[in-house]
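Work package 3, deliverable 3.1, input record:
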Amino acid sequence: MDPLWLSHFTATSSIGRGLDQTLDALHQHRSGLAPCAFDTVDLATFVGEVAGVDAVQLPAQLADFDCRNNRLALLGLTQDRFSEAVRAASAKYGAQRIGVFLGTSTSGILQTELAYRRRNPVTGALPADFMYASTHNTFSVADFTRRYFGLTGPAAVVSSACSSSAKVFASARRMMAAGLIDAALVGGVDSLCLTTLYGFNSLGLMSEHPCRPFDAQRNGISIGEAAAFALLERTPEQSDDAAVLLLGIGESSDAYHMSSPHPDGLGARMAMQDALKVAGLQATDIDYINLHGTATPTNDAVEGRAVAALFGPHTPCSSTKGATGHTLGAAGAVEAVICALALQNGLLPGGLNTQQLDPTLEVDYLLNNREQPLTRVLSNSFGFGGTNCSLIFGRRAQP
Amino acid sequence: MTLTAYIEGIGLLGPGLTDWPSSQAILGGQQPYQPIKTLLPPPALLPAAERRRSGAIVKLTLATGLQAVTQAGLDAASLPSVFTSSGGDGENCHALCEMLASQDRQISPTRFHNSVHNTASGYWSIATGAMSTSSVLAAFDASFGAGLLEALIQVVVDHTRTLLLACDTAYPEPLYSARPIPDAFAMALVLAPERSAQAMAQISVSLVEAESDRLIDAALEALRKAIPAARGLPLLCAMALRQDGRVVLDYLDSTRLAVTVTPC
């Protein structure tokens, strides 16, 4: 594929608002996970909650979109002068030439969960102020974002559970290659809600500790929330050495089970292999892997085996979910931004919370930060339904 | 910018519509349309455990997808896919929200994993063994248009056949009052980059600013408007006439999809 340029990017999660705070948290080994005090949730678990989401006010003309997910989206869009960059791109290319492809799994379902507490006791009706289309509906966050910027190009939400905001890069890449658009606003937004907290609890997949990816004692995920975005443009002839490019995308389906990955990691391996093939790279060209690394016993075992089979035991890798929590539909975009920061700053972020590495997983899992120049990195995102996506990012300049 | 592909197979299931062959005369205007509640066939292809857990959207998409793939004479396992739906399984969402608003929040694991928007895509890959990519989209009332565009760019850019599945299922009260989708409807298209022996028609699609087409039959028009996946019906009506045609399909706000249809 023709490499695409991440001309601007930003991330807001429990470890920080915007790039500076995110990078600082990675440098300082700071986790955003804390005992869950969200809403009325009575589960003994840790979550990565973003501070101050409820204080965000949507513009008056977009008040119908008001819900936690869109507040978090706006909080994220307004960091790092990202919104200025989108408006500049809109002026440069035309509002109809910019696509909006965002991933979410939760969308604003919290709004419906809350409305169900206020049903009419006689008729069962939802309260009159409940606005399904602009809050809960899966498309809401993309619709909000395109209206916020006045963008009129193709738009969709990609909602394939925890691969959602990795797969948005694939939709954007095809749209740009087909010539339908000149730039794409991609990203992911997922917010805390009862469905995911009680849902993962029902599956026995949630830890009572801060999640410990690749630990021998790992016993489940910690859920987080986040908003992360990138502006994708064609690679310019000239750009500075810090430019981060999307080099490859690989996608696959497990065709195995709704909530368990393929035991041999076949789908995961196919996605990573395809990403390498599309980028024209070998496994040895990858300097760091940001793992999906959810810290469930099964995911990490399967992913560890797939990575070991493809890359051998010497490619440094880690999961950053010990810091951010598993941000589900936003995870692909958050980790894409972490990969971009890693490339620009020569930082391989060590995984947090992990005490004793699982000796059966024969990969070079980093527990401490490592600083060295990086050329190409790979990020994995896998989800329920057996959906897999791997992204490869690289620096423009080869050191 | 025009995107061109060939339709090799069509699947169709909705109120009063049971498959493409038997619906052609209705959509072509030779037979009256009689809306009868959509009948969902059991998902025979799924293993027993998955069959028990599958909801309406899984039955709907499996049936419709297999119709299209069978007509195209292809192996479903070989095809990438695009699933598009306005908002997923309303029945399941209602059951979850009701439970989460009650004193007992211990929702069932099956309910939870069926709550993901890619449930239909996941079950499809399990049933057919399809391991290639599956894009799963949502765009509210623009879902059909978004899915058609996504499928076309797969065909054109990746030079591959792909299966488009646009589907929606009924929303129960009290959600129905907020999102009045009355019944299940799905439409599947096998799209190919090149003309083959099984090609039924060539379609060329471009983004336009124009009014979308309405259907002449009042009941079919009501169906088109009520269920987002049915916004693709004008394309099937044009196909049913077996002559050159041009339709404008709903998409975003003022942006629509103009589709030129040329029978093969």
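Chain B has ten helices and eight strands.
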